[in-house]
# Entry
Amino acid sequence: MPTAATSAGPSGHALAVEGLFAGYRGVAVVRELDLEVQPGEVVALLGPNGAGKTTTLETIAGLHRPISGAVRLSGDDVSGTPAYVLARRGLALVPEGRALFPGLTVREHLRLAVGTRAGGRLAGARRAGKGPGNGSGNRQSREEELLEMLPELRKCLGRKAGLLSGGEQQMLAVGRALVTRPRLLLVDEMSLGLAPVIVERLIPILRRAADELGMSVLFVEQHVALALEVADRAYVLTHGRIRLEGAAAELRERRELLAASYLGETAA
# Structure
């Protein structure tokens, strides 16, 4: 099993969020949030609409500066670090809106993603006085590895993203992140607007990303039952605060407690 993407800091966490207050224009949407993801672990962030899940992911990814608290990536405090810097350090976000370029083909999306990540590593290697390595061979091997995980994309390589179906676009959005081999993968509402058969095909890819590629995964998902099937652990966020957390297997067996947490009731 490849484990090159796995990385942890002195605390052993791939991601640690501590006492996070986050929001917009100084108004907190997320309050006192503590959350962690271990190396190679899949963690689900659940909760009703408006709970603050997207704000949490976007703040971790560097799209918003925290109001207070800390975000640690592999042990380093990266609170407020710009998104492009975090991307070069091995964080990838699949946003809710997919953020694809309609005029670019599937192949161009994948190669652009690999090239952008490699560019950050190449710049670091140059500063350290190291050679660039074989970028072309690395790119091709990553593309082929991805197409084995998402074979549906193979027939679409020459098609522009704007001409893809919703399911194909989501596969491309996920594939574009996976092909960069991130240490930490963040996924926001992968199933939004998709048919159940596509959802059942896509969400297990997150489990494979952890098991086969050594990635740490934090994902937001409304399909609770399916999310808990692929996750190791889960947090339930309601009104900007964590109401419940635990092993996914345990939460699957305690549906009443899970439902109460969605309503913002205190867990007994």
Remarks:
- Residues 15-98+186-262 form a domain with the Rossmann fold fold (CATH 3.40.50.300).
- The chain is about 40% helix and 25% strand.
- The beta strands are 15-24, 27-37, 42-46, 68-73, 76-77, 91-94, 184-188, 216-220, 233-238, 241-247.
- Confidence is low (pLDDT under 50) at residues 1-6, 119-134.
